[in-house]
Amino acid sequence: MEEIKGQEIPKRILSSIVKRETIPSAFLFYGPPGVGKFSLSLQFASEIIGEKNRVRKGVHPDLLAIFPEFDGYEKDEIIKIRKNKGYYKLRYSKGSISIDTVRKIQDYAYITPMESKWRVIIIVQAERMTLEASNAFLKILEEPPPNVLFILITPHSNLLTETIVSRTLNIRFCPLSPELQKGIIKDSSIQRFGRGIEETFILNLRKDLEEEIDEIFFNVPSKVRIKNWSEDLRDKWKIEFLLLYLQKLVEDKYKRGEITLDRAWKTFKYLKRAYEYYYSNLGPEEILFYLFLKI
């Protein structure tokens, strides 16, 4: 597991579990996007299954990787996008993990492993499970099949039901430093760093909007924002990018002493609520008006 950059604490925890051979039935890997959660889950799965090459390529018969269902994309396309480091472009698209997918997980989990003693099931963006899917998956966790390991991956553990979180071993993944990201990305043109590789790519992809968002949310009164509202603004920003940029702007402004701790704390609280609205499929117009009023 040393191939993964950073995340020393998660690596030590997982290495210790492998050595002790006391493996829980379910893990929850949570932390910012692009900090190594999925990569480390594959590394850990390869240790459990006992075969590295095919597991790390995602083609071992005793490994199942589940991604949200995005409109217009087949599973093979999503996996290919992931391998080509372009998943950040999908991450903020509308998608879900349906109850039909959870039923497939259940069927797979209760089949005897083909080559290993274990079967490993990795669920990416587990917070995207619908309510029906969450309830069905909880039943599997309550009576887990023998020798099956579940790894749930999410940037927002608070969006999973408390009952699911309580039945998993929670492992927190920390943000990556800009220095570590520079070594991973190896692109000197990138100057704007988020908490992880995916956020960094997004920040650089839409950096042209930074000054506009900064001006509107930190220099224009809320009444004026609402008065100047237009659908063009909503469509140009995209809620997922807006939330990420606001988060980064608040972090930077607080570090530079441009806003108080109290304002930073309140803004993060509003952003957290906006993320919850976003993942509950509230319309972008309602979320934008909420941000206009609160920040």
Question: Overview of this structure, please?
Answer:
This protein is α/β, with parallel strands linked by helices and 295 residues long. It folds into two domains: 8-178, Rossmann fold, CATH 3.40.50; 206-294. It contains 16 helices and seven strands. The chain has helices at residues 8-20, 37-49, 52-57, 75-83, 88-91, 99-109, 131-142, 162-166, 178-185, 197-205, 210-219, 222-227, 231-237, 239-255, 261-279, 284-294; strands at residues 26-30, 63-66, 69-70, 95-96, 119-124, 148-154, 169-172. Helix 6 (99-109) packs parallel to helix 7 and helix 11 (210-219) crosses helix 14 (239-255).
Please report which band the strand proportion falls in: under 5%, 5-15%, 15-25%, 25-35%, 35-45% or over 45%. 5-15%
Provide the CATH top-level class of the largest domain: Alpha Beta
Radius of gyration: 20 Å
Q: Could you tell me the number of beta strands?
A: 7
Total domains:
2
Extract low-pLDDT stretches: none
SSE series = HEHHEEHHEHEHEHEHHHHHHHH
Number of helical runs?
16
Q: What share of the residues lie within helices?
A: 40-55%
Q: Describe the strand arrangement of the main beta sheet, using strand numbers.
A: 2-5-6-1-7
CATH-wise, what's the superfamily of the largest domain?
P-loop containing nucleotide triphosphate hydrolases
Second-tier CATH architecture of the largest domain: 3-Layer(aba) Sandwich
Q: Structural class, please?
A: alpha/beta
What gross morphology would you assign? Answer: globular
Could you tell me the mean pLDDT? 87
